Amino acid sequence: ADYRVPDYMEKIYTWCYVKPKNVKMLDRQAVVQTILFGYFQPLANMVCSELKPGQKLLQCGSTYGKLIATVSKKLGPEGTYNCCDIMPIQVASCNRKMSKYPCHGGCILEDAATHHPEEDKQYDAALSFLLLHEVPDDTKRKVIDRIMMSVPVGGKAIFIEYHKPAWYSPWRYMMPIVYWLLEPLAFTVWNHQITELGDPELVKKFKWRKELRFMGLYQKLVGITILTQYSNANEVAQFLERCVEIAVQMMPEELERMIEMYKSLCPQDPDRERQLVVEALHLLYLLVSRDLSSFHAELERISDADMENPLIQFSVHIEGYLTTGRYNKIQEYMQLLPHPLFSYLMAGLVESIRDDIESCIEESYRELSVEDFCRTVNWKGSLEEVLCHIEEAHGNWVVRDGVLVFPRRVTSEKKERMETLGDLIKQINDIETI
């Protein structure tokens, strides 16, 4: 009963957000696509690319079109999607859309600029979708700050908004006319970076990246909370380093996730040596995984000075020996490890190489003496150990009078040609990627 439509909504946006008939007409996907020059769904997809199923999302301001549907599907039944809007008709529309999907949450009647201390750091991500250009400058700042305060370390602040295009874009000269006629509050976003409008102390706690679309008319700005501004940054980095160590030793399948977490939360670790150890472990992990394209992409990000570090050089040398087939040198490097943690990944790499060599031997020979087999795979153990290994790893091999007899593989000529062609195409794609 005490609710009153804000003055700026009455003066500026009666035509699109206040009158029920207009709201019903505008809240159609085709209309929204037309207003945004066909770019609404690509913008919605850009939001979803930053989210994962099961996450908890706060959206400041409801939205016309199918954004609610697109995001709800992305978050899934385990996710939570909370929204707020200052107009009752928008809240009702948003809740009606949300009710069609199993995602938890809902929309409440509230000014998006309202800060609730109890919700600080409670969301995996917080979103402003084409809202800032429609609210007064003071509200802009409060919305930006609320979004930044709502996410914890590692959380994302996501802004989809208009952007001032480059001088050669026709939108640079057409859109100011549209703003002057219909969106007079948009000029602040047009002339300033979003990060300039928020609390500088909060902005410093995020690592920001920006993408431009449609000749620079739209922007996606994403901030990820980092630890460099926190007093306990070193302690947290030590904890994450320990997580990486445990993953290397006991849970190799989790190693890449632990490394990515360390890199995203500690991009400027005060301990440079620790940062290089994690980077070198990541490179070695990519080699063990035989992901050469990602290995070379990661090398491109490393500075020339860091490339000379022995930790990084170790992985570079191993990659060189792998690509040239000098597997004996890789085994020699097992005695030259620059860090104890490397031994776990190197053991896996050596075992993987030996498996490949043994597969090649089986393909290439009908029979081979055990002595020649040991020499080929550079076996360092005793005869009893190699026979035990053969029995466990290759149950279809037969040892007869000191000679290994391999099973004959029957493959059609056509299938062999297709396999060879497939391998060739894969190699060409890998080389092109590198």
From TrEMBL:
UniProt xrefs under Pfam families: CSN8_PSD8_EIF3K, Methyltransf_25
Protein name per Swiss-Prot or TrEMBL: 50S ribosomal protein L17
GO terms for cellular component: cytosol; nucleus; proteasome regulatory particle, lid subcomplex; ribosome
Protein keywords: Proteasome, Ribonucleoprotein, Ribosomal protein
Residues in PCI domain copies: 247-422
Cleavable signal peptide: none
GO biological process: proteasome-mediated ubiquitin-dependent protein catabolic process
Family: Belongs to the proteasome subunit S14 family.
SUPFAM superfamilies per the UniProt record, alphabetical: S-adenosyl-L-methionine-dependent methyltransferases
UniProt xrefs under InterPro entries: 26S_Psome_Rpn12 (IPR006746), CSN8_PSD8_EIF3K (IPR033464), Methyltransf_25 (IPR041698), PCI_dom (IPR000717), SAM-dependent_MTases_sf (IPR029063)
Transcription regulation recorded as keyword: no
